[in-house]
Design brief:
The chain has a domain at about 20-49. Helix content is about 40%, strand content about 35%. The protein has one helix and two strands. The protein has one helix at about 30-45; strands at about 1-10, 15-20.
Length: about 50
C-alpha cells in the first residue's frame, strides 16, 4: 500500500492531494480511511495547522 502526497501552490495557500494505491483486499475500507485520517492529522501536526 502506498500513499502519494502532492503539494501545489495556489492563490490562497497550498492544495494538498493524497492518493492511496495498492490497498490489499484484506484491509477493510474503514481501516484504510482511518489510516488516511491519521496520516493527514500527522501532516497537520507537522506543519502546525
Amino acid at each position: 500500500m502506498t500513499a502519494t502526497i502532492t503539494f501545489q501552490m495556489v492563490a490562497d495557500g497550498t492544495e494538498v492531494t493524497v492518493h492511496q494505491a495498492n490497498i490489499p483486499d484484506t484491509i477493510p475500507d474503514d481501516d484504510a480511511e482511518a489510516s488516511l485520517t491519521d496520516l493527514l492529522g500527522n501532516l497537520a501536526d507537522t506543519v502546525g495547522a
